[in-house]
Amino acid sequence: MSLTTLLQALVSGALVGCLYALIAAGFSLVLSVSRGLNLAHGELVVLGGYAGYAAWLLLGVHPLLLLPLAALATLPLGLVWDRLTARLAPPVELWSCVLTFGLSLLLQSAMTGFWSGEYRLLASPALGHGVALGGVALSHARLAAALVALAAVGALALGLRRARWGRAIRATSLDRDAASLLGIDVERATRLAFVLAFGLAGGAGLLFATIHYLYPAAGSELTLLAITLAIWAGIGRMRALLFGGVALGVVEALTVAVAGTGWREPALALLLLASLLARGGALAREFGRRS
Amino acid sequence: MKLAAVLLVLAVLPLLGPPAYYLYLFSTAYQFATLATAWSLLAYGGQVSFGQAAFFGLGAYGAALASLHGASLWLTISLGAALAGAGGAAVGLAAGRLNGAALALATLATAELLRGVALNWTALTGGGSGLVGIPSIPSLPGIPLELGGRRVGAYHLSLATLAAALTISAVVLRSRAGLALAALREGETRGALLGLRPVPWKVLAFALSGVATGLAGAVYAHTLGAVEPDVVFGRVFSIAPLVMATLGGRSLLGPAAAAVALYLVSELVFHPLAPALHQLPYALALIAVTLIRPAWRRIP
Fold this sequence. Notes:
The structure holds two protein chains of two kinds. Chain A is mainly alpha-helical. Chain A has helices at about 5-35, 40-60, 65-85, 90-115, 140-160, 165-175, 175-180, 185-210, 220-235, 240-260, 265-290, and strands spanning about 130-135, 135-140. Chain B has one domain (about 25-240). Chain B has helices at about 1-10, 20-45, 50-70, 75-95, 100-120, 120-125, 150-175, 175-185, 190-195, 200-225, 230, 235-250, 255-275, 280-290, and strands at about 130, 225.
């Protein structure tokens, strides 16, 4: 592998990694307030991508202008997921897996019925070019995705830290009962976190569609990725999530550069498996502390 | 005894001369029933698997590879089951460190990992297009060929697989192992304090569940004549047993009966309506079973 290939893998991996961090941020937000693992998170991202793609075909405007639209497409589902998750029997972690496994299959079926199984790419000419930095090519699509994702993760982190609603969400995720005793409307904070996470997923889907082919089953690897990042970063640590996302993007890009595109998915699955074995206990303890 | 009678009646059904398609349909239904029974063996010990497709695929590929290298039917099926059992034991070892949701995710990741390996290890597995030309199962001696042709053999072997899975389940649940598994389910820490070592029992449960699932996978490979990574390691073979066994409840035969019923509904009702949506009944049943939470639900 030449130095240029290596640099190229590092740079484009790091850029995509920012988008991964954004995807994982929504997953981890839901996990923190509801203790529910949303195995349909990747499907929501893909759904947002399809919505953005359809709107782009229809309107023909710059893809980034369609971000709010893609976010709006998945956002209402947050309310549905919130209600369904609230009805789960304990242990919520396990039952939420079962529920959302079904929901992911439902979404996949719906997307297959709606858009068929063909591969689609939001290949807008507005993002078609790129810049070259000493032999390393940076496509506009990747740059835009990374910048928007960084901005979104930053804004989310800031909101969670400073804003009233953000503090309500953090308090709810730390200790639901105590937050409730302090007069925080925990139901509302949970609902807000779901809606926020789903909106972020939809928006991330649009960005995803500009750099990656969409097909109904594309979401399952995004879910695996989000779980891996949630394990790496712990719950609710945005900066760690960002570093983790970039690291994961780089590992993925290096795998593709060394072994070929086909090994991307098995490498991601292997990473998740290894992370679970190394830190699954930690995740369980985190749950235990919260229950 | 009742069970033996039911199986015997099912075994003579092909003598009535149903169309070959129905024989195929019921062979697949029995394979799903085997999967559901194998899944509930794990659930009995409190372990929820989201990745039975891993063992199904191992069984299918093990049998397919062995038969393409010239092994006889009994050998291919034993090899498939053994490979899946070994895979199960490996997952069981990992399960010693994991519980609940983390274990469920680990099994899911295992199935995805094996699917990816099967897709990419083209020299061995034929890559995305899989392996074809796996010989079909001959009929039992004495059965006239005009009865369903080459489908009768698959029917009987699928039924035998189901019988094997039910027997394994029944024997395990009535033995010391069943007691240990029940203790793990009710409280692993408590069991450990009383001197129960969880890991060997988890390995045993996963290995047996793997063997039964792998048997079904091996018979599937011979029934269809072809294996493909996206199919045999696909999500359907992970979700279906989970749904079917949770619907079927706690009895020995419940999961198998629910599997046959759900599979037939899916194939005879949903598939003609909308072929692209054949996974829909599984998705809906899974969501319903999580939310409605009947008293007989299976997962601890």
